[in-house]
């Protein structure tokens, strides 16, 4: 028997702190007469994180920056199909801090009262009571725990392995000039909306062509001035892994969302630093085997500031779909 494909949806729990209390944003949908989290179905070729940021902006009228992933939900629709909803924590975007990331996003439709006719900021207890579906309390409880544990206010350090490149044995020029393939260019373009969803405003990359070309679509879309670091190249890393480690530590300590683009042989050093600054549960799920990341793949590390320094409190691997 052939089953209908799962309906994939994405959304976010938008949060803020007022007078020391955690508040969240609920929306009311007149079509269903329910109070829920802003969310919606993926568009063709759209990554889950991109869909989450877009849907929240469409339903609330305000752009957001995604934070830590939250537990998702799966249930049957009235038509008997399986629907899977993926959630993130999210904060409202701030100008000018998030201006670069917002510039890299596609325009969204203005809110429609046919879709959402009411919105409300509520405390956690009030929100739990207002939610129509009890299952929607699951991501809310996770959000509240993260806030209580100091793991909710985060910034990202996104690690990107450059897009697919021309094989070494098929390239007769200098190694630093070896380019990415058409697939690599497609992977580079697909990363743009994902990086924008997480608010990336700082770009650090190896100077070698395949890394520079991978990050270039985001640099252009966001209007960012990239920092090309020679120590992130394969050759320089081999001479001094400690300099790569120092670059990663700087990004962890900086509160600005950032992306670092480098090469497969450099990834063990990068991941080792992330692991040293991670909660044990996070360190255990970081990529541990070669190739660590596939070409064009992203590792999003969510970093919280603590009394002991930066701490990676969550990590997620994302492969942006190609159009």
From TrEMBL:
Against CDD domains, the record matches this protein to: NUDIX_Ap6A_hydrolase
**Protein origin, superkingdom:** Bacteria
Keywords, comma-separated and alphabetical: Hydrolase
A GO molecular function held by the record: hydrolase activity
Q: Which SMART domains does this one have?
A: PGAM (SM00855)
The chain positions of domain Nudix hydrolase read 5-145
User: Which protein is depicted?
Assistant: NUDIX hydrolase
């Amino acid at each position: 028997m052939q089953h209908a494909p799962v309906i994939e949806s994405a959304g976010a729990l938008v949060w803020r702190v007022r007078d020391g209390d955690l508040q969240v944003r609920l929306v009311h949908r007149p079509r269903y007469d329910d109070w829920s989290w802003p969310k919606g179905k993926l568009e063709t070729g759209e990554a889950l994180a991109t869909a989450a940021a877009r849907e929240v902006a469409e339903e609330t009228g305000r752009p957001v920056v995604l934070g830590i992933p939250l537990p998702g939900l799966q249930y049957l629709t009235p038509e008997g199909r399986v629907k899977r909803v993926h959630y993130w924590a999210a904060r409202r975007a701030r100008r000018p801090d998030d201006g670069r990331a917002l510039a890299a996003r596609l325009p969204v439709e203005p809110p429609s009262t046919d879709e959402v006719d009411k919105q409300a900021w509520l405390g956690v207890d009030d929100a739990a009571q207002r939610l129509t579906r009890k299952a929607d309390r699951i991501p809310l409880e996770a959000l509240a725990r993260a806030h209580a544990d100091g793991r909710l206010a985060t910034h990202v350090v996104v690690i990107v392995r450059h897009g697919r490149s021309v094989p070494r044995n098929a390239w007769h020029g200098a190694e630093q000039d070896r380019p990415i393939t058409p697939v690599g260019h497609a992977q580079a373009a697909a990363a743009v909306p994902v990086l924008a969803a997480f608010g990336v405003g700082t770009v650090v990359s190896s100077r070698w062509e395949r890394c520079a070309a991978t990050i270039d679509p985001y640099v252009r879309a966001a209007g960012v001035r990239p920092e090309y670091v020679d120590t992130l190249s394969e050759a320089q890393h081999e001479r001094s892994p400690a300099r790569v480690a120092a670059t990663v530590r700087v990004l962890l300590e900086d509160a600005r969302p950032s992306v670092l683009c480098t090469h497969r042989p450099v990834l063990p050093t990068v991941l080792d630093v992330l692991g040293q600054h991670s909660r044990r549960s996070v360190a255990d799920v970081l990529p541990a085997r070669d190739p660590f990341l596939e070409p064009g793949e992203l590792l999003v590390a969510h970093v919280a500031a603590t009394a002991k320094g930066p701490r990676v409190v969550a990590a997620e691997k994302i492969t942006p779909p190609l159009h």
